[in-house]
Specification:
Layout: H1 22-27, E1 31-33, E2 38-39, E3 44-46, E4 57-59, E5 64-65, E6 70-72, E7 75-77, E8 82-83, E9 88-91, E10 94-97, E11 100-103, E12 109-111, E13 116-117, E14 122-124, E15 128-129, E16 134-135, E17 140-141, E18 146-147, E19 152-153, E20 158-159, E21 164-165, E22 170-171, E23 176-177, E24 182-183, E25 188-189, E26 194-195, E27 216-217, E28 222-223, E29 228-229, E30 234-235, E31 240-241, E32 246-247, E33 255-259, E34 262-267
Amino acid sequence: MTIPAKPSPASRISTTGREMTVAELDRAGLLHADESVQISRFAVFIPADELGVLRPVVIERHAVIGAFAVVHGGATVSEQARVEEHSVVGKPEHGYAVGQIYPGNGSATVIGPGAVIRCGAVVYADVHVGANTVIGHYSLLRSGVQVGSDSVLGHHLCVERATRIGREVRCSPGSHITSATLISDRVFLGAGVRTINDKTLTWHDPLRQPTLLAPRFDTGAKIGSGSVILAGITIGEHALIGAGSLVTHDIPAGAMAYGHPARVQGEAP
């Protein structure tokens, strides 16, 4: 269906906290939609977060919201972006994780121009997805993740909180990107890559907080499928890690390394 632009401000309403149809959201003044958008009548909108704070939803021209997609308050779906069926955008973080309790507050979430959120993907609040980037089927982006433009994140990918992913990055299916990882421009991660940020395996310990050191991938680095990158490791610019490697030490720029543990074997081709 097509919803005309309606720039009225958000207001507190009696339906706080419950799901709304697009028509209900529009009547409540919480939908700011340009002309020519396409919103399925089966899409679901949740404008209030766990604390009862209402935020409008912005959908720009030629954007598409598919059937049974769930869009939370504070989300902006930019022009020509697509949110496909059964995906979730702008979900507030709620509960305990790694020494912190998340109260369920919403935040601004941006799906950039021409970006695509594939069926079943979950994008939490405070995430920014760059222009023309694709988030694969059933992938998960936790709070605070930023993804640059023209990147492709494959299906069944888990990207943990506060990770930064650059432009023209390829992350193949089935990989786990641990929290606060830095992935620079034009990095390639093969399928099933595992990253680690915790050397002590501390979880839910009231006597101490975990010391987390995320790995870093510099511009143009390439990581073969099935590799494991340990906490605090830096993979230098244009370095190449062979498939199935266990990386326990920094790899310098331009080097080729592989093995278990990985050792520098020469220069990357």
